[in-house]
Amino acid sequence: MDGKRKVLLDVQGLKMWFPVTKGVVFKRTINNIKAVNNISFYIDEGETLGLVGESGCGKTTTGRCILRFNTPTGGNIWYDGENLNQLQEKDLLRFRRNVQVIFQDPYSSLNPRMKVRTIISDPMIVHKLYQTKSALNNRVDELLEMVGLSTSMADRYPHQFSGGERQRIGIARALSLNPKFIVCDEAVSALDVSIQAQIVNLFSDLQKKLNLTYLFISHDLAVVRHISDRVAVMYLGHIVEIAGKDEIYANPMHPYTKALLSAVAVPDPILEEKRTRIILSGDAPDLRHQIRGCAFQTRCPEATEECSHCAMELHEKSPGHLVACLKV
Amino acid sequence: MREKTLLMTDKPDGNAEYVLSVRNLCTYYYKISGIVKAVDHVSFDIKPGEMVAIVGESGCGKTAVALSILDLIPNPPGKITDGEILFGSRNLRTLSAEALRQIRGKDIGMVFQEPMASLNPVLTIGRQLSEGIIEHLHVTRTQATTRACELLRKVGIANPESRLNQYPFQLSGGMRQRVMIAIALSCDPKLIIADEPTTALDVTVQAQILELMKKLCSDLNVSFLVITHNLGIVARYANHVNVMYAGRIIEKGTTNDVFCNPLHPYTKALMEAIPRLDLPAKERLDAICGQPPDLCDLPKGCAFRPRCMSAQDICAEEYPHFVDMGCKHLASCWLLKR
Q1: Gap between the Cα atoms of A240 and A247, Å rounded
Q2: Mean per-residue pLDDT for B322-329?
Q3: Domains of chain A
Q4: Which residue in B234, B274, B292 is closest to A222 by CB distance?
Q5: Is B291 in Cβ contact with A164 (below 8 Å)?
Q6: Contacts of residue A165 in chain B, CB cutoff 8 Å?
Q7: Residues pairing with A233 in the sheet
Q8: What interface predicted TM-score (ipTM) does this complex get?
Q9: For residues A194 and B213, which has the higher predicted lDDT (pLDDT)?
């Protein structure tokens, strides 16, 4: 397509464990909640990796580790060739210029007491990007136009905007430092269908215009398919499958991916009547208890005895298509 | 003792029998900023054993419809100003508060969106299930507990005896929603109103809950009124669908008719705006431009006109009437000819 792209983000063996402690005076760790348990993936420059999974799978925690909101328990993350484990406090500022985030809830991610102009210029002031106020204001106007808002909106407060407009403000804020990489954490999930479509289009347009790289975290499989180049499916802290978007939706291999796709109803009643559905039994197991072998075996329609010895490692089954399952 | 409710005969048809018949319902909220016409001349019917959906985006008034049926609209500032809500042979709007209390939770059950917010966190599951049973069916606590156990089993909860003594926080989201459905079923209702019953749940759990609702619908002949913004689940599970926009139903018909042949520009635009797993991925989604209208300040004529690609002059003058395109597939749009 467009030659060999360089790898912008490389995650190797990422672990994020939260200790479960007992005792008040003498705290001791009795167990760990393995929110992210040894995952590896990479994202090329200019690419979008969709990270899908249900609640509790660890996708948001993965995003937070990349953003350094959490310090991982183990593993390495290389951003643009630099190992984030070796970042000092003074390097974080430089890092944050390149790696930004857009949050899910447009209502709580904007400070209600700040005008839009202040919200967007804040990061630029912190990073001392502009010397004069007029240069700063011009940049704010430019960003508002880029996200499809009128410059007259800069002097209003967040409560005066709708959900979709507030999300656009959040996007403008994320773009203000000219980042290269943006973590979109359920960025369109709180929006109505008709507004979602506008924002998804905006993401695509901005990516082409500014050569952005996205980690698009979502539980909505249809939106992820639309916006991503490759998709990774997570379950209980593990990546169970990664493939190109056309491949994974046309040819899902892991039983969990198949169940997930089967569970999504499409707005075509005639097709829906004919589809075979895989209905999983029970709920995802509690992460506070140790799980031996494959995390999915308690709900998997194809599980057998050997699955309790499975290490859940990804293996390449066809070019670019990796699956963590003994049965495939 | 449960009283038998007579099913009402539909006057226009003469033959059809409906569990619920809503006619010209109007629910307005009187606020300082103006009158919010949350529900404006809404009519629809539900037959026994049928699943009917009301679909629309947030702010379109679909939850207000559900709350109006059960007279749960906060007053002030809300008020049902017009219309009839016929449940069996009775118009719920003419009943006293006491008579409505007898119906609410007994003959009409309700399942809300957030199970954690709807269940009392300090009472056990067994206690919450038994509450309605004792109140409406006048049985002893032991009999109520036995029935509660049966209900939990019916909604697919394993080891129901142990669950009765548990608290909501000890259950997962899917289990809590099953408990909500069990509570709604507890007094053998004719109708269950489910307001976004699966929105707060994971996709795989959503599928479980919806399959359960569908099974109950056919096994127990309970009708469901499902309120949702998810067109996929409507296509999969509902028999009839009503599409709402800015407080009004703008299209209604069987699910097959509305999805395979959408008539109203809003319905068509909504179908185009959704990313679809069953169709090839598009380069760009066909987004609907603009924003949903402010219900305090609706434009003259058709509320969708400012966002409609096919708007004509008459659309700004007068609100379009319903046009029946056959097989009870109706839409309110000036572009349609009978």
Answers
A1: 15
A2: 89
A3: 7-240 (3.40.50.300)
A4: B274
A5: yes
A6: 291
A7: A52, A241
A8: 0.80
A9: B213
